[in-house]
Amino acid sequence: MQHKKSWLPALVVVLLLLGGGWYWFAHSGSHAKTNTNAAVTTEKQFYQDITKKYPQLKPALDHDAKPDTYVIPGLLRTQTLRSSSNQLGVSKTMDPQGLTVTPQYVVISAYSHDKKYRSVLYFIDKHTGKFVKQIVMPTNSHAGGLAYDTVSKRIWVTTETASQTASLSAYDPSTWQQADFAKTHNASQFDHVISLRGVKRASFITYHNNSLDVGFFDQSAQGKFLAFPMTQSGLPDTNTARKVELRGANQVGKYTTSKRLQGATFYEGKLLFSQSFGRNSSNILAFDNDGQRSWIDFDKDDTLKTVKLPPYLEQITADGSDLYVLFESGAAKYRKANLVFHADRVVKFDLDRLLQ
């Protein structure tokens, strides 16, 4: 009997070690970290599916410079902070919304669809396609738009104020280049927050010709497209914004319709919009507009080209002659939906071929 009791302390120690190891694995193990693998399909299958269902995209998808696609990280799980407690947690409902590119990175914004977790920025190596890091933002905002200022090197995000009006938030290059949530487990505070008085919601944003161009919509009025010139300090001058009206019965800015603009970008005197129709195929609309015209009419002959793309198209951004395109159909909310195509990757198109 005495011999059996001598094993008890050792057994307790073993159980404690096993328990501690399980706790470490559960909370710090790889399964709790942000996933970097594709949520839906392999690269080969993705290419076969998109070129079969959208054959007109094939010439524009083939590049001499790889990669052609970038896996969207975090769709299965994203380690972030809880909105309520600021404690570590894992969101399984991250929804990608915004997209921009820098000389080194493809950057994607995403928000937790259940609003229980902080929104994030994913950084992907532009030249290799590999996930590099993520930043957790100090908000659970929708973060529907991203823009990279090529002059100040700031990254701008569309956000909302506490009173639920639109704002633009930015990270200085010294902040976003050094921040890495995996190392600190802290949210990265914005360096600048600019309130857009009188604007209910900024739906998308792009940088062009030393200005931030912001699209916003109202439930009872036509959409607007505002161009905020940048000051010498690299901040948008909200007092001298130039307005571009989005006209026409088919204009896509109203919340009450399913025809919504999700993003905009400029390329060689053209203005391109991404347009989403819910479960139906999306469009890219190309207009002859160098950013100086005061209105766009969706009902007239202003549209130079309409390119059909898979459903749930989000932001687009031009970089040189490449167009980077983001979809949200790989998010948990849509993965089981009966869609013609699920896209769990950013796709890079050759713009000249796409607009032929």
Any overview of this molecule?
This protein is of the alpha+beta class and 356 residues long. It folds into 2 domains: 1-32; 35-354, Neuraminidase, CATH 2.120.10. It contains 8 helices and 23 strands. The chain has helices at residues 2-5, 8-28, 43-53, 58-61, 173-178, 181-184, 332-335, 351-354; strands at residues 69-71, 78-81, 88-91, 94-101, 105-112, 120-125, 131-136, 146-148, 155-160, 166-171, 192-195, 202-208, 211-218, 221-229, 242-247, 260-267, 270-276, 282-288, 295-297, 303-309, 313-319, 322-327, 345-350. Strands 12-13-14-15-19 form a 5-stranded mixed sheet, with no helix packed on it. A 4-stranded antiparallel sheet has the order 1-23-22-21. A hairpin with a 6-residue loop joins strand 2 and strand 3. It is globular and about 55 Å long. It starts with a helix and ends with a helix.
